[in-house]
Here is the input.
Amino acid sequence: MTNPQLTRFDPHDPAGIDDLLSDDEKAVRDSVREMCERRINPFVADWFERGEIDDIRGLAKELGSLGVLGMHLDGYGCAGMSAVDYGLACLELEAADSGIRSLVSVQGSLAMFAIWRWGRKAHKDEWLPKMAAGEVIGCFGLTEPDHGSDPGSMRTRARRDGDDWVLDGRKMWITNGSVADVAVVWAQTGDGIRGFVVPTDTPGFSAPIIQHKQSLRASVTSELVLDDVRLPSTALLPEARGLKGPLSCLDEARYGIVWGALGAARSSLDCAIAYAGERTQFGRPIAAYQLTQAKLVDMSLEYIKGLLLALHLGRRKDSGLARPEQVSMGKLNNVRESLDICRAARTILGANGVSLEYPVIRHMNNLESVLTYEGTVEMHTLILGQAITGHPAFH
Here is the structure.
């Protein structure tokens, strides 16, 4: 007997996951999607090809007006929305481009979260409202040229000189660095690793842009150079001691990636479905051939499983139950599977798959970076391995 309430099968939501979202969550998703379709999608392939975003400060202000900068934080002009809301926003932003989602993630989950969680009230009052509005851009200086997965071995130093702090060192692969107004910088001190709020107009601070990237080209990526950067004692983040401070920020950013990577996968999957229905070979659309259907089914299944995992982690995070190991699970699985989805989509498009006329190769190249930033496959595997077995295997 046919159920009269049974909805039509939707190839873009084959498992009916939309039914698990509230109307408010769908409204957040739809508003971000609309903004991306209007403000980013028509231009992003050109930005990627040129390696430059037109009017990035204007774009940041529009993202601020939309409410997505620090949207999961409370107070100080932040939207105070749920983890699921933030995840859905990240998915839509990365469906446009990983570089745009990176801009938002670094601003909100790294720079703003560090100040919001670990900063002085004066830091929060000074920086967070302007950052939430997109009037001020932030960056997060942790990774170094020789120390990525091992931040505890960083060489950047902060020493006391009277009442001041003086910072010396280098940071590498820093999103937003060359356009940032404020940097959260982590450094070794006599009291362990500490964080500092560094206005980028401080003498001795510079941020040369990194050129010749073949991934995340629609994103500003920089080196941070700190040569005798003198800061007042109040620049110190007082509550952050040791690696707990920066790692707490990375957990926030990794959670956004759990959702964001799926946006790149969805965009590539949708493109492959449409292309397979239009491209004819031997008198039939290639969607009518078994091998193409097998690829599309496998891609859809992995996307669905990743989305269910992301939503589950979002609900746990909103309940205060999400553990860092669980976020590692989501980051490891969803980026790896999203990259495989993009690679499979590329094969369906054939030679057209390498053209920027289609989004697939751009997403595929971007995810090669997302795969290794905020924790490599190896590091997240070892985090989960230790959690499952009780034995650390990092050394």
In short: The chain has three domains: 17-132, 138-241, 245-389. Strands lie at 138-141, 157-161, 164-175, 182-189, 192-199, 205-206, 221-231, 280-281, 284-285.
